[in-house]
Amino acid sequence: MSTEQIWIGVGLFGQLLFGSRMLIQWIASEREGRSIVPTIFWYISIAGGAVLLSYAIYRADPVFIIGQAAGSFVYIRNIYFIHREKQTR
Predict the structure, then answer these.
(1) Would you put residue 34 in left (φ > 0), alpha (ψ -120 to 50) or beta?
(2) What is the C-alpha to C-alpha distance for residues 3 and 74, in angstroms, rounded to an integer?
C-alpha cells in the first residue's frame, strides 16, 4: 500500500467521522422532538475536523486548511461554553 493510498484512507475516514455528527444530531433531535445539538456533536466535530485538517495539510491545500482550522476554533469554543455552563450549576 502506498503513502498516497494511506492518506486517501485517512481523508475518507475523516470525512466519514465528520459527516457522522449530522446523523447523531438528527437522531438526538428526533428523540427529543425538537432541534438540539448534543455535546457529542462537538466532540465528533473536533475529531473529524482534526483528521481532515491533517489530510488538508498533507495535500497542502490552503483553502481546505483554512476552513478546517477555522471550524476547529468554533468546535472548541462550544465545548468550552458547555463545560463552563456545567461548572456554574
Answers:
(1) beta
(2) 31
CA torsion, ordered 76, 80, 82, 88, to nearest 10 deg: 180
What distance in Å separates the CA atoms of residue 58 and residue 7, rounded to the nearest whole number? 8
Which three-class secondary structure state does DSSP give residue 34? coil
pTM of the model: 0.88
Q: Where are the domains of the chain?
A: 3-87
pLDDT, one tens digit per residue, over 19-68 is: 999 999 999 999 999 999 999 999 999 999 999 999 999 999 999 999 99
Print burial letters for 56-86: b (CB count within 10 Å at least 16), e (below 16).
beeeeeeebbeebeebbeebeebeeeeeeee
